[in-house]
Design brief:
Layout: E1 9-15, H1 22-30, E2 37-43, H2 50-60, E3 64-68, H3 75-85, E4 90-93, E5 99-100, H4 104-115, E6 119-127, E7 133-138, E8 143-144, H5 146-150, E9 161-163, H6 164-167, H7 180-189, E10 195-206, H8 216-230, H9 235-255
Parallel strand pairs: 1-2, 1-4, 2-3, 6-10
Antiparallel strand pairs: 4-9, 5-10, 6-7, 6-9, 8-10
Helix pairs in contact: 8-9
Protein name: Glycosyltransferase family 2 protein
Enzyme class: transferase
Family: Belongs to the glycosyltransferase 2 family.
């Protein structure tokens, strides 16, 4: 499939103290078989030499851009700054310690354009903090609507691609005690849009010991707060969704 000449994917990458991983993350983008992309890296006041590393990469590849925030304000604000400055019709999300397979953008764009989709996500593999790939691959459901997503947080942020022309303006909610990316997916699907899964392993999630996903209690609390603060769902229905979320999370984490 040939893509329209104006097809550009804007890759949204927040970063904070990611000097150990950012070069490998950038390299996985540079190795993409689809080359019409821009990578917008927003540094959230890193205390290490992340910015210096990114600047070196910019000298090698002009498709990479850097935004340096003046105040540390969390990944949601960093992503929103990148989204605001994005030039592409498509948005893709990649955190500064995760990786993509070389055909990720090409395969996902083909999937979306062939099926006229606004929102897609893919399977992904887990790797350890030191970069060793595990046997754990999360296979995603064929599609999800708003009610499905309220009960299951299976969509990996590093796998999401959005078509701005179909979805319109998007911003992540700025509640630091909520799950900001989950809140954005819910806000999109609440408009009647459905998200569709591509059952191909196209991304690799780095599971760090201090990550939110490793802290199950904190993750659960953020999910609950997303129901109540972002979606403003009443307590009985929030409890119903949370029970289902917990059961799905137990199935997911029993493998990881």
């Amino acid at each position: 499939m040939r893509f329209a000449t104006q097809t550009v994917v804007s890759i949204i990458t927040p970063t904070y103290n990611a000097a150990r991983f950012i070069t490998e993350t950038i390299q996985s983008v540079k190795e993409q078989t689809f080359s019409s992309w821009e990578m917008i890296i927003v540094d959230d006041c890193s205390l290490d030499n992340t910015v210096d590393i990114v600047k070196i990469e910019i000298e090698k590849d002009s498709r990479i851009r850097l935004i340096e925030l003046k105040n540390n304000s969390g990944p949601a604000n960093a992503r929103n700054r990148a989204i605001t400055s994005a030039k592409g019709n498509f948005l893709a999300f990649l955190d500064s310690d995760d990786l993509w397979q070389p055909q990720k953008l090409e395969r996902q764009l083909m999937f979306m354009e062939k099926n006229n989709l606004a929102f897609s996500y893919t399977d992904y593999r887990i790797m350890t903090e030191v970069g060793e790939k595990t046997d754990i691959v999360f296979q995603v459901p064929e599609k999800m609507d708003y009610k499905d997503l309220l009960k299951n947080t299976i969509i990996g942020t590093l796998t999401v691609m959005l078509d701005k022309r179909k979805i319109g303006k998007v911003q992540m909610p700025l509640y630091r005690d909520c799950s900001e990316d989950y809140g954005l997916w819910l806000s999109i699907l609440s408009k009647g849009i459905q998200a569709y899964g591509l059952n191909e392993e196209l991304a690799i999630y780095r599971k760090c010991e201090n990550s939110l996903s490793s802290n199950k209690l904190k993750s659960a609390r953020k999910t609950w707060n997303t129901y109540r603060k972002v979606e403003k769902i009443n307590i009985p229905y929030s409890l119903w969704c949370f029970v289902n979320y917990s059961l799905n999370a137990l199935k997911k984490h029993s493998r990881a």
